[in-house]
Automatic annotation (TrEMBL):
Protein name: Dolichyl-phosphate beta-D-mannosyltransferase
The Glycosyltransferase 2-like domain, residue ranges: 6-172
Keywords: Glycosyltransferase, Transferase
Gene Ontology MF terms in the entry: dolichyl-phosphate beta-D-mannosyltransferase activity
Residues in coiled coil: none
Family: Belongs to the glycosyltransferase 2 family.
PANTHER family: DOLICHOL-PHOSPHATE MANNOSYLTRANSFERASE SUBUNIT 1
Organism annotation: Bacteriovorax stolpii
This protein's GO CC annotations: membrane
């Protein structure tokens, strides 16, 4: 795992970040972890700073304010490519993604696969724990519409637990990314697929966050559809990457 990096964007995750970092290093002692914090008012970054002395493979990028999940990942991916990591993973800080599953995502790329997605819906199953019905309805309907419009066969098209092989990330023009927020997950998967790479879905159980406040809102859904139409148009005009 010493060629692997996991990027974790944080906004107000002071209650989760400590245990998440400790858990990751306990499971994968030679992995690297990059936290991208958007000046969280709850001082998430201070918790991370304190852990840096204990974990030499822990890195922190502090940004000036809440600039969105998509831009946080772009910054993380650019950093990872400068550092020569071979496997670059991403996950949430709130334990919705189980750190125990991370190893399965990374090892799924040991063959020719370019992207492994921790999938809540593969095998026509639903593995979300404690999600309110409306949340599941939004996620499933958004997935259905995204698949219909793009032809993508991925069941979990908006999931945020993933691992990319370096080669695929190197081919993405990050200055051309249009998503600012959560729809970034879809945009990246769509681009990797459009480049002809193999994508695999690894079944995971997704649990509702225990600590911290949910950030889901209507704006997120609206951004998703706006990005979907723009990406589809770009694909038709051959300007996707
Ligand atoms: N740096 C940064 N991180 C963010 C931002 N928005 C969300 N995050 C982090 O991205 C990850 C996913 O966000 P979540 O809020 O868990 O998204 P979600 O799972 O769809 O919704 P809830 O868990 O219900 O809030 C978490 O680690 C957040 O702290 C942001 O604008 N900037
Ligand atoms: Mg969450």
């Amino acid at each position: 795992m010493n060629q692997s990096l996991v990027i974790i964007p944080t906004y107000n995750e002071a209650l989760n970040v400590d245990s998440m970092i400790e858990r990751l290093f306990a499971l994968y002692p030679d992995i690297s972890v990059l936290i991208i914090d958007d000046n969280s008012p709850d001082k998430t970054a201070l918790v991370v700073e304190a852990l840096k002395t204990k974990h030499p493979n822990l890195f922190l990028i502090k940004r000036a304010g809440k600039l969105g999940l998509g831009t946080a990942y772009v910054e993380g991916f650019k950093w990872a490519l400068l550092k020569k990591f071979k496997f670059i993973a991403q996950m949430d800080c709130d334990f919705s993604h189980d750190p125990k599953d991370l190893g399965r995502l990374i090892t799924a790329l040991y063959d020719g696969t370019a992207l492994a997605i921790g999938s809540r819906y593969s095998g026509n199953d639903i593995r979300t724990k404690d999600w309110p019905w409306y949340r599941l309805l939004i996620s499933l309907s958004a997935g259905f519409i995204l698949r219909l419009f793009t032809g993508l066969k991925i069941r979990d098209i908006s999931g945020g637990f993933k691992c990319f092989k370096r080669e695929a990330l190197e081919k993405i023009n990050f200055d051309n990314i249009i998503s600012k927020g959560y729809v970034f997950q879809f945009e990246m998967t769509y681009k990797v697929h459009a480049m002809g790479y193999d994508i695999v879905e690894i079944p995971i159980v997704f649990s509702e966050r225990v600590y911290g406040k949910s950030k889901m809102n209507l704006g997120i859904v609206l951004e998703a559809f706006s990005v979907m139409f723009r990406l589809r148009l770009k694909k038709l005009l051959n300007q996707l990457n």
